[in-house]
Design goal:
It is a single chain. With 396 residues, this protein is of the alpha/beta class. The protein is 50% helix and 7% strand. It contains 19 helices and five strands. Strands 2-1-3-4-5 form a five-stranded parallel beta sheet, sandwiched between helices. Strand 1, helix 6 and strand 2 form a beta-alpha-beta unit. Helix 10 packs across helix 12, helix 10 runs antiparallel to helix 16 and helix 14 runs antiparallel to helix 19. The longest helix is centred in the middle third of the chain and has 25 residues.
Length: 396
């Protein structure tokens, strides 16, 4: 009987161990700058649910990260990705957002690379629709949840323990998190919400560290496969008509575009969307949202967690507060008073945190800022582009 060769086995163990315990800084080196540029506007959810591409992006001041939700997918010609490609100003927008990426989801994105936030300029877009009675739903959170980011949060030493405790308690309010046999005990330990046996904690910690590293390796592999235009149907090539135009000229162009494409209804909603999604069911939407208050929502607490993290890490942030489509929400049963309450609470939270706010809620009852019931349209992007440019060019 042949004696097994120990050398190759030892070498295999060394290779696997080195991969498993490789630091993030080394793993992110597998991503080239050309891949970061490709990823900047792709809207590939693998980027949002990972760590490494965002880390590589934050390390390079060429990129200005824009955190938001589904409005980022409205890639019309005035969208920041297209506008700043035609009218460059020293930076490239990097989009981080899709439907359901409310404040708590974005907290985990930001917390995953908290050590890179100091003095980093970022843009954070707030949608008032987030602040419903229930806030972030179980289904939206589950669809955008990242175990890799949660493990990074759990094992991070860059976040204040008091803030970590608040976030852990919030995460444990979601059923699918509480039923995760590895993540839940680790969060419960941070939250100090239950007695966890030393054996359970040791086992969860060991498994958590191992799973975290495996997920990071998988993240590194996925980032080699990122391709531009994850949603090709929503992409528009940059339009040279934007070149060198003044803001008033751009606004005039955008309003003209919207007037031509939203003239079929009194809500100033894009014709194609209105005809397909609303026209034949208009009566169904009468007062359908009347139960929503928008003044009391778990989302206010989640936004505060984001603000606390960014303040703690000394990030330089421009928050952008979007309006409701006032005429539509009047029809849906959400009064002007309810909407104003929501707006004022957002302003209060951001200003208490000491951050800048580009407040566009004055467009609540004015047409053309939005293109449908909630998403930014051409005129809205013109105003947002100007706010982003002014923010970026401010001296630190």
């Amino acid at each position: 009987m042949k004696t097994p060769k120990i050398g190759p086995m030892i070498l295999a163990v060394i290779i696997v161990s080195s991969l498993i315990f490789m630091p993030l800084s080394v793993e992110s080196m597998t991503i080239s700058q050309s891949e970061v540029y490709k990823a900047s506007s792709t809207l590939d959810p693998n980027i949002f649910q990972g760590i490494l591409m965002q880390r590589k992006m934050l390390e390079n001041k060429q990129y200005l990260p824009i955190y938001g939700s589904s409005e980022l997918h409205r890639l019309d010609m005035y969208h920041p990705t297209n506008y700043f490609q035609i009218n460059p100003d020293g930076f490239t927008p990097f989009l981080i957002g899709r439907a359901g990426m409310y404040s708590l989801v974005q907290f985990l994105n930001l917390a995953s690379n908290a050590d890179l936030l100091k003095n980093r300029k970022i843009v954070f877009i707030i949608s008032p629709e987030w602040f419903s009675n229930t806030g972030l739903s179980e289904s939206y959170f589950a669809g955008n949840f990242s175990e890799e980011q949660v493990y990074q949060f759990i094992f991070s030493h860059d976040i204040n323990p008091g803030l970590k405790q608040k976030v852990a308690k919030r995460l444990l309010q979601f059923n699918f998190v509480r039923h995760n046999g590895t993540i839940a005990p680790l969060l419960e330990k941070i939250a100090k919400s239950a007695h966890i046996s030393n054996f359970t904690l040791f086992s969860a910690s060991l498994q958590g560290h191992f799973t975290s590293k495996v997920l990071q390796l998988y993240d590194a592999i996925k980032m080699q496969k990122v391709t531009p235009n994850y949603y090709p149907s929503q992409y528009q090539s940059p339009n040279k008509k934007l070149k060198g135009k003044s803001w008033s000229q751009l606004e005039e162009m955008a309003v003209k575009d919207m007037k031509a494409t939203s003239n079929s209804n009194r809500f100033h909603i894009n014709n194609a969307f209105y005809i397909k999604q609303i026209k034949n069911r208009l009566e169904h939407f009468k007062n359908y949202d009347v139960h929503q208050k928008f003044g009391h929502s778990p989302e206010y607490g989640d936004l505060q967690l984001v603000i606390d993290l960014l303040k703690e890490e000394h990030a330089k942030v421009l928050f952008i507060s979007l309006p409701f489509n006032g005429s539509w929400y009047d029809y849906a049963g959400v009064s002007q008073q309810k909407r104003e309450t929501c707006y004022h609470k957002i302003v209060s939270e951001v200003h208490k945190g000491g951050f800048q706010l580009a407040d566009f809620t004055q467009f609540d009852n004015k047409p053309y800022f939005l293109e449908d019931t909630m998403h930014v349209g051409p005129e809205g992007w013109v105003y947002i582009d100007r706010a982003i440019r002014n923010f970026y060019n401010e001296k630190s």
